[in-house]
Fold Glycosyltransferase.
Amino acid sequence: MNILNAVYGDSTGGRWGATLKTARLLAEEGHSVTLLIDPVDLPNVPADFVGPGLDVVTLRNSGHYDLIASWKASRLLRARRIDAVIAHSGRAIHMLKRAAPPTVPVIAFNHSHNIKRTLKADAFFCITPYMQQIVEAATGGAKPSFVISNAVSIPPEEALADPTGGVFSIGAIGRMVPNKGFRHLLDALALLAADGVAFRAQIAGDGEERAALQKRADELGLADRVGFLGWLDPADKPAFFNSLDVMCFTSEWETQGIVILESFAWNKALIGTAIDGPSSCYADGETALVVPPADPPALAAALRRLHDDRALRQRLARNGRQAAIKHYSNEVVAQLLDRCVCQLVSDACAGRLR
């Protein structure tokens, strides 16, 4: 099957990574996938992306109402004999919905709870059950929707290791922006230090709040306990995860959070916040300890509990890894993508969509 996988907008964040992974997973299932992007985003395509079943095409698109871009896209669809379109942004959906014939379904892959600009699509892939609820409420259930999570690579057992430093090690990863809750993590760590707990924390990522967070760590007397690592290269992630006892997901709002799935895959105990979307990935006391968002005392208590109970850490980590293998692995998500795309193409050809 020939699939067009398109995105317009930010080519550095989680949506961009998910777009690239969608293309790769479908290619591994035997499809021919064309990545359609704006020319300005071409330098952000990895050097090893193009290969068997994978190609890249650029097309300038000035906005949601760019009729010339839609005309050019329609020619591309015919030339490449595209059977299905997966669009990861509102601008891509508007352009390709005008371009595609009725027999070619335009599928919105929703990575945000702000779905207004995606509602023209014929069908929807939603990364969490909560997102599916939002879509179905907006469409009245009139269009098909499927829950298809972000996918994660599962490292082999021999790649896993326990931390060797002897000091309780805490980790977090994310863009340093207000909703990620890193300031609450620092406040929780200060409470932990005041309680006499020995620990070392590492926060990976970057963003507009990094300088303020580093200043806050200094003010709390945590400069010698908390390291700010910047963004990690993929090659550095194994060492990072293997150095940790616990991972913290502290967002106040989020769509899913790939760090949750990575923590599971790397066999790490997780503390997560009780927020719509991500909390569908974990269960309190089974695959994570769940705390309210923006609640440093509750987060500190959960950290202290995991510090004191190694058996609980091991149980949460083991259960999380099994959840990653069963629900979020590349192989599982690729097969689900394949089934859903094939079903939608069949429905479109039979006139059951639109």
